[in-house]
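User: These chains co-purify. Model them together.
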Amino acid sequence: DAGVTQSPTHLIKTRGQQVTLRCSPISGHKSVSWYQQVLGQGPQFIFQYYEKEERGRGNFPDRFSARQFPNYSSELNVNALLLGDSALYLCASSQDREETQYFGPGTRLLVL
Amino acid sequence: QKEVEQNSGPLSVPEGAIASLNCTYSDRGSQSFFWYRQYSGKSPELIMFIYSNGDKEDGRFTAQLNKASQYVSLLIRDSQPSDSATYLCAVKVLTGGFKTIFGAGTRLFVKA
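Assistant: Joint model of the two components:
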């Protein structure tokens, strides 16, 4: 079975631009969570979606938004990029909102 | 106080020794506890999860949970150089929606 997939793998943007990151969960998993990981830190929780509804939100500004589609894939959007948004963005899926999460390979975003 | 705290390390142990990794958490409503391993440049990989007080063993790994002390640990027996990685403690909380909070991780080096 395929694991969690994310695209793109790497991305370079400039300050003020907007970015969309994509995630496909493991087949049969209905929950997707997004995390931001900066170098030397653990992943920081951004959002959890379950059955296309937001179920949890971390302490991130409104520039960050996400959605989940009927096939349970998800997109994370970040507007008005700042240098500090440079990080590894991780997507994790689980069967439901309380189950163990499995991570995708991540998207490495560099904001110049 | 950070929600999930770990010693950043590095923790260095000789090959074949027991490595002991510790984690404390602040939210008494925490439901589930996870240990992930993360190699440099890679995404986190689930090692173990534990929900109830006590010990849980899986091969060379033992997770220990003490909810009264808000403490969770991971023991790695017969440590191997391939165990050298950053170990992330994660806690799932229900406060303010579903979210998983990660510690900053402990770097482990196993010397051959």
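The interface with chain A takes residues 4, 31-32, 34, 36, 42-46, 49, 88, 90, 92, 96-105 of chain B (CB under 8 Å).
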